[in-house]
Design a protein that fits this description.
The complex is a heterodimer of chains A (286) and B (343). With 286 residues, chain A is mainly alpha-helical. Chain A is 74% helix and 0% strand. Classes of the chains: A mainly alpha (286), B alpha/beta (343).
């Protein structure tokens, strides 16, 4: 088979998967309600965070830790959306819609298909993150002057970080392929671990040294650090201060690449096992 | 000499499922779903695989459609090994599984079909035309704009049937395509399957069914399968011809009858099945010849039974199956045997 045919199949797998993903994510209600939901959800999430910060942690909005926490949380919206968005497709297509087997029988690139299905979730997460940041700047007084934002760093970090999350999603999709539908919480567990270990709401420095090392091995940590440096001027993690901004992106790029290789290899292995055990059309309604 | 190339070819195809220890409960820990199955389907054939539930029909289709790997043996589809190159096989095949309600609930019927046409690289106005044409065939034309979650299971099954034919695949696998459908719809779909084959003489269909009428009416050749083994394979006429020297009778009897006790002792009773129907015992008999009927009737009389009706029948595929296996298609197999729908 020629590379041209393969390329065509990959492109149409992506194109149709993006379309399908958007239909599944947005078609559950009428467009007006969907728009309201898309705005209200991130704002409500931001308010919960502010409430927790003010009442539970007894912090002040002018405390330098608050922008750190707020920006980390705003971008963490992507973690759940992309990670779960891709891995959940396996359960949804296989067990809910009963369509995974037909996808496997069709001449499409399944990796591209899964990544394409995650695009809709990423688009919705982008809207939610933007609204959260605007709410933080406009209502809570977080200082992100557009003139001082390093837009280049922000754009590159965003692309690399989202790629890393997509490959983590693929890794989880591979694990999901081998497990029953009840194990959907694997995705939540991984997202929760990343919340704890990647410096989303508190700097890496407060973690025990062993966990700090785990955090330093995760691309998400460098992603959030780069995003904070781009938006706020500094990352806020003492443990990462020694890394110059110019080195952050290569580290993020390298770890994303390593993750891509590992996740594709793992997914293909899981697919092989699922094929052997007859799990591609498994229904676990018990 | 070059070896003949078939659309579908299996050699010694075997699939063993291992049952987890905790699920086995002391029973055997392996189930042989397919047992050294040899099949060769020629291009342009409508080939049937007839067997009861649990015979291995779906396992066979799953292997051929690249969804499941065999334990041993080989399978080639469109001349391509399904294990070595599943991606290439997928460019030649389509699949429809009956009795399921798959589909993206939030999409309309038309969108679901359009999406699949795109995955297969179909382009242009012909796609819409083909979708419309198929929806008319399956009686869903008025529901084209209806979201799938509003459809009944039967309507979803019709939509999936349309999906299978949408791309006019080179080789189409139909796994019990009419199971659970009403008689009229099943008849319409069978007529379309035959018409599609007539319109596309270079295409191949492998159809599994446990409805003997379906296999008899539709298929050019039929493989009879039970417990994973291919027991016979030929045209329906040839399979039935083997029974023509024997006599096939259906009797309805009233009264307290033990058919096992009654018939086991009579010489010349080759095979029999019995079932309760409308308050009577229905006996299907394959006898060495008509003369064997006399001792059977005497036996019934001797046990106090009363003959309600007697019919000499032309042999059917079900009789062929009974002859080969010793029980009917809807009995003695795994759970869930559905009864034969009226043709």
């Amino acid at each position: 088979m020629t590379a041209r045919v393969r390329g065509k199949e990959t492109w149409r797998s992506l194109r149709v998967a993006v379309w399908l993903g958007w239909q599944v994510e947005s078609n559950w209600t009428d467009p007006f309600l969907f728009a309201v939901y898309s705005v209200v959800r991130p704002v409500a999430g931001a308010l919960i965070l502010v409430f927790m910060y003010l009442v539970v942690a007894r912090g002040g909005l002018e405390n330098p830790l608050f922008p750190y926490v707020f920006v980390g949380n705003a971008f963490y919206i992507y973690v759940g959306a992309v990670l779960m968005g891709i891995s959940w497709v396996v359960i949804d297509d296989r067990e809910h819609y009963g369509m995974l087997k037909y996808m496997y029988v069709a001449p499409l690139n399944i990796l591209t298909y899964l990544l394409g299905r995650g695009v809709a979730q990423t688009a919705i997460a982008t809207i939610a993150t933007a609204i959260t940041l605007l709410f933080g700047v406009g209502v809570l007084g977080i200082r992100i002057p557009p003139g001082q934002v390093d837009w280049g760093l922000l754009a590159v970090a965003l692309v690399l970080g989202l790629s890393a999350l997509a490959f983590m999603g693929l890794l989880l999709a591979g694990a999901t392929l081998l497990t029953a539908r009840h194990n959907f919480f694997i995705g939540q567990a991984v997202a929760g671990a990343l919340y704890l270990l990647s410096g989303v709401v508190f700097p890496l420095d407060v973690l025990p040294p062993a966990l700090q090392w785990v955090g330093k091995a995760l691309p998400v940590t460098y992603w959030l650090e780069a995003l904070r440096r781009a938006l706020l001027g500094e990352g806020g993690n003492e443990a990462l201060r020694a890394i110059p901004t110019g080195h952050l992106l290569p580290i993020l790029a390298g770890s994303t690449l390593a993750l891509a290789v590992v996740s594709i290899l793992f997914f293909r292995w899981a697919e092989g096992v699922a094929h052997c055990r007859g799990l591609l059309d498994m229904q676990t309604m018990y | 000499m070059q070896a003949r190339e078939y659309s579908i070819e299996t050699k010694d195809l075997t699939r063993v499922f291992r049952v987890k220890r905790r699920e086995a409960r002391g029973e055997k820990r392996e189930i042989t779903a397919l047992d050294r199955a040899d099949l060769a389907v020629e291009r342009g054939e409508l080939f049937g695989v007839l067997g009861p539930n649990g015979a291995g029909k779906t396992t066979l289709i799953k292997i051929l459609a690249t969804l499941l790997s065999p334990t041993s043996g080989t399978a080639r589809v469109a001349g391509v090994d399904v294990v070595a190159n599943p991606w290439e096989v997928r460019r030649h095949i389509g699949m429809v599984s009956g009795g399921e309600s798959s589909g993206y609930g939030l999409l309309t019927v038309e969108e679901n079909l359009w999406m699949f046409s795109q995955f297969y690289g179909m382009r242009g106005a012909d796609v819409r035309k083909r979708i419309k044409e198929l929806l008319e065939v399956v009686g869903l034309a008025d529901g084209a704009k209806t979201k799938i979650y509003h459809l009944s299971t039967g309507m979803r099954q019709k939509m999936n049937f349309a999906r299978g034919f949408l791309t006019d695949p080179e080789i189409l696998f139909l796994d019990e395509p009419t199971i659970g459908l009403d008689v009229q719809t099943a008849r319409t779909l069978r007529a379309y399957i035959r018409k599609w084959m007539d319109d596309h003489p270079d295409r191949t269909i492998l159809l599994t069914t446990h409805y003997m009428y379906e296999a008899d009416e539709l298929c050019d050749r039929v493989a009879i399968i039970d417990q994973g083994k291919v027991l016979a394979c030929d045209t329906p006429a040839a399979l039935k011809r083997d029974l023509q020297e024997e006599a096939v009778f259906r009797l309805k009897v009233e009264g307290d009858l033990d058919p096992e006790k009654l018939l086991r002792g009579i010489a010349g009773v080759h095979r029999f099945t019995h079932a309760a129907r409308d308050g009577h015992a229905q006996l299907d008999l394959i006898l060495a010849d008509e003369n064997v009927l006399l001792p059977v009737l005497s036996g019934i009389q001797g046990t106090g039974g009363r003959l309600v009706s007697l019919e000499k029948r032309a042999p059917t595929l079900e009789d062929v199956f009974i002859r080969l296996v010793g029980h009917g298609l809807n009995e003695g197999g795994d759970a869930g045997g559905a009864s034969e729908p009226a043709p």
